[in-house]
Amino acid sequence: MAYESEDIRKRQKRRKLDKKRQRKQAMRRRRTLIIGLAAAAVVLALTGLLILLLTSGGSPEPTEPSSENSLPIQTQPTEPETTITIAFGGDLNITDKVVASGATDGGYDYSKVFLDILPALAGADATVVNLEGNLCGAPYGTQNTSAPQELMEALAAAGVDLVQMANSCAINNGLLGLKQTLSGIRQAGMEPVGAYTSPEEFEQSRGFTLRSINGVKVAFVAFTKGMDGLALPAGSEDCVNVLYNDYTSEYSSLNKEKIQKVLRAAQLEKPDVTIALLHWGSAYNGIVSDSQKQIAELMQAEGVDAIIGTHSHYVQTVEYDSQNSTFVAYSLGDLLGDADKNNTNASTILKLEFTKDNNTGTTRISGYEHTPVYIATAEKDGVEQLRLLRIREAMAAYEANSIHKISDETYAAMKSALDRIQSRIEPEA
């Protein structure tokens, strides 16, 4: 049996040696494979670098290290064109009736006032309205033109993004009232345009508001013809953008220096679109003045693409030059107000379409549409309350004998308002 034990030991030793040789061979194969892969990676890297140099004509630019605070990398749009829409509403006048329209047992709620026109306000990429009033606390209503903060919350919830504050009511409650109003607008999540809490804020903003809307850079400016005879205190002249030097009296001396200063500062930012919100013309007057024509020409010469007017309380005509891509709406009427004077019971929400060519960088006004709106009055507990209705939709519901249809009288008034608005806003055939 001894030779059998010896043979077993020899066979075990040979197996150990064989395993050792196999491990060494496996290690050599792995080293060879690793070296081969590394060499291939080097070749690929050099080849890629050579291709980059040949196609770029120079050495590659160094990349900046990334950090949490670094700006996002700007990539080229994948689509050949980018189209955006911006909606504009007319005057929102703060009166006793307007304030009472949102009164509840526990405070104020204006959501129902704007409920029917939500599609027109929220259906655009950005929406602008003109607030003729302040946010200065009680007493609310006509005397102080002060509105509850809940009205701003309802506007923001309805889709409004920017609020024009260069208008007749900007300093009805002094500079403190203006400051409180701008704060209330911002508190609601919107941005005021054309008015500033201090000269320092004006200098910081340079008199305009810049927004990127789906990658399209839009500059908004706003000016008013005056402030119901009130003058800005000395040292605070830049707190509201005004069109005239004699804005407390004659409105005859155009403030070209201020207009050009603001517009040229905006153009330095190279916006794709520049929009001017103008509180101009004469109240309760449908005539477009020579001064308005002069202002429009001046602004277009300084790069303004679209001018949206307010103040007359009437819907006035529009001028759309598709070839030169300019648009002027002289007045959109009263979005919300007492509607106690002829032709002030209706307005229109204008929607402009802008199309940017992502290859050339040029942007044009590519079209427009509008939604006629009616100020309807209903009585609740002996108090008149106002609601905004889309005219076309309300008339269609009446004609279909809807259970919630408007009255015969309101239908007739809407029909008259619609004919008047369409004759001034819609393009000729």
Please name the defining characteristics of this protein:
single chain; 429 residues; alpha/beta; Purple Acid Phosphatase, chain A, domain 2; eight-stranded mixed beta sheet; six-stranded mixed beta sheet; 35% helix; globular; disordered N terminus
Distance N to C terminus: 119 Å
User: In percent, how helical is the residue content?
Assistant: 25-40%
- C-alpha geometry: globular
Name the CATH superfamily assignment: Metallo-dependent phosphatases
CATH top level is Alpha Beta
Radius of gyration, CA atoms, in whole angstroms: 33 Å
What does this protein look like?
With 429 residues, the protein is of the alpha/beta class. It has a single domain (81-425), classed as 4-Layer Sandwich (Purple Acid Phosphatase, chain A, domain 2), CATH 3.60.21. The chain has eleven helices and 16 strands. The strands form three sheets. Strands 1, 4, 5, 6, 13, 14, 15 and 16 form an eight-stranded mixed sheet that branches. It is globular and about 55 Å long.
Summarize the structure.
This protein has a single domain (81-425), classed as Purple Acid Phosphatase, chain A, domain 2, CATH 3.60.21. 35% of the residues lie in helices and 24% in strands.
Topology:
Elements: H1 2-56, E1 81-93, H2 96-100, E2 103-104, E3 107-108, H3 111-114, H4 118-122, E4 126-132, H5 149-157, E5 162-164, H6 174-187, E6 191-193, H7 199-205, E7 209-213, E8 216-224, H8 256-267, E9 273-279, H9 290-301, E10 306-310, E11 318-321, E12 326-329, E13 334-336, E14 346-357, E15 363-380, E16 383-390, H10 391-399, H11 408-425
Parallel strand pairs: 1-4, 1-13, 4-5, 5-6, 8-9, 9-10, 10-12
Antiparallel strand pairs: 1-14, 2-3, 7-8, 11-12, 14-15, 15-16
